[in-house]
Amino acid sequence: MNSKHQHVELNDGHFMPVLGFGTYAPEEIPKSKTTEATKLAIDAGFRHIDSAYLYQNEEEVGLAIRSKIADGTVKREDIFYTSKLWCTFHQPQLVQSGLESSLKKLQLDYVDLYLIHVPLSMKPGDVSIPTDEHGKLICDTVDLCATWEAMEKCKDAGLAKSIGVSNFNRRQLEMILNKPGLKYKPVCNQVECHLYLNQTKLLNFCKSKEIVLVAYSALGSQREKKWVDQSSPVLLEDPVLCALAKKHQRSPALIALRYQLQRGVVVLAKSFSEKRIQENMQVFEFQLTPEDMKVLDGLNRNVRYITFNIGTTHPNYPFSDEY
């Protein structure tokens, strides 16, 4: 684990760096900050960059990647870029246009990984989260297996090197895996995963199917009022975590990231601070003992920060199942 650019092999033969840079930011953060932070991340050694159509920042992220290619810091093939298909593009005939719209904003020829962002199909159109006059989500009835077939076509067309899913539960993963005529298995499932929601059952299931688990909100979350219950516990202030951080003379964030890597989870770290971005790269410089890991396993309390409550009435709402 001493290599700065540690990778994991995906089930389609491509390689994904195990530490990724997350680019989602609350609306009040100016978009230009995203360009700046992404450049800093690449300078610090991050090679895996994660964004999505929904984040509305792909122009800024693309600009950062292209400027780092232009100044010779990296080549395009050094960067592993992830984007995600939003819920209003689930109809099979819309999938490729969803990806093409991201590529156009990025000004890139392909993405390294394309994910179905959330298994909740919504009414197609320009509104990201379409609601009726009562504020209720306007769903769309789409067979996710048909959406997946359209994702496979994007891979065949060379627009995405690898394809996967995000926020899927076990049942939804099995639905894709058991699909007649399946051409490509999802390479990963990107889900909320941290010390308070360690996803052990889902992780073990994914490993048994050669699907990589990718963790978002690995440090808790940015606690954005729109998405997160403000009374939920603050992960990085956990006394057990802070005691372990003290023992290793590392920040609580580094301990939380390292925990995921040692479980075989690919982890996304998000920060707009140059100091923290550089510090997060130190995750490869130390190891937790089996005892440390056991203590951290014990922190799980099944607290989910991102519950996507507006989607609870959707027939495909993923978080009602145990895992």
TrEMBL record:
Belongs to the aldo/keto reductase family. Pfam families: Aldo_ket_red. The keyword Transport does not apply. Keywords: NADP, Oxidoreductase. GO terms for molecular function: oxidoreductase activity. The record marks 84 as: Lowers pKa of active site Tyr. Residues 19-300 form the NADP-dependent oxidoreductase domain. Substrate binds at residue 117. The keyword Methyltransferase does not apply. This is Aldo-keto reductase family 1 member C1 like protein. It comes from Fukomys damarensis (Damaraland mole rat). The active site is at 55 (proton donor).
